[in-house]
Amino acid sequence: MTFLRRLPAGARIGLPVIGFGALVLVLVLAANGSGFPAAGTPIVDIAATNAVRTLDAANALLPIPAVTATAQARLRAAWTVDSTPGRVDALLLAGGTVYVGGAAGLFAAGAGDVLQAVPPESAPEGLSQAEGRWVSAAAPMTLPDPVAAMCPDGLRGAAAAGEASIWLVCGDDLLHATRERRFWFQAAVGPDEGLPGAPSGALLVDPAGRVWIGLADGLAILAPPPEV
Question: What is the pLDDT of residues 21-60, one digit of tens each?
């Protein structure tokens, strides 16, 4: 997992020495007087304060020793995987139903998220086929500048789970961006966190807060973290 603390301008500095990093952070906060650095002021890697950003319950800050045992274990247990659709190229929420456009056809998620085949002519408005692949007509998200800067290799998909939570497919990576006050953090979600395959770029967050992730060989659903 990669943990970074970002400023609105996207600046960041990682300091490997915990004691020195903590001292720099204290000096920056003291100079600003407001408890947070002024916009554009570099800030040390949050790991320098003996805490890291995780995808644990409620996106809490956990001590470094707890990351692998707690955060990753909870994530690994929160996935549902279905290979039925093959490569998933489009996801669309219509009429309270999630539609999945894959290499094997069009599917609708029924009770228990069981995928049921749907005739192509019954596709909901906003979902169509082009050159043999399903395409969603949903307008692309407008990302805050710090979040957009997290994807230097090209944004392939994005879905918001609220004003302070955005999921991204950047290149071949799945990222989760979260905001606290005016700071954005990012966490990479990969095989160690239970991601079962390579993201295809299709992303959707349903009303229950579950993240639907199209894969190169199927569909993955990540349940929201439990309340604390």
Answer: 433 333 333 444 434 333 333 333 333 333 334 444 444 4
**Residue-averaged pLDDT of the chain:** 74
Strands 61-63 and 165-170: unpaired
Sole residue written with tokens 């307008």: 139
Please say whether the dihedral angle defined by the alpha carbons of residues 59, 192, 190 and 11, taken in this order, is positive or negative: positive
- Determine the Cα–Cα distance for residues 80 and 95; give it in Å rounded to an integer: 22
Residues pairing with 35 in the sheet: none
Cβ–Cβ < 8 Å for 51, 63: yes
CA 28, 34, 35, 39 torsion: positive or negative? negative
Strands 199-205 and 51-53: unpaired
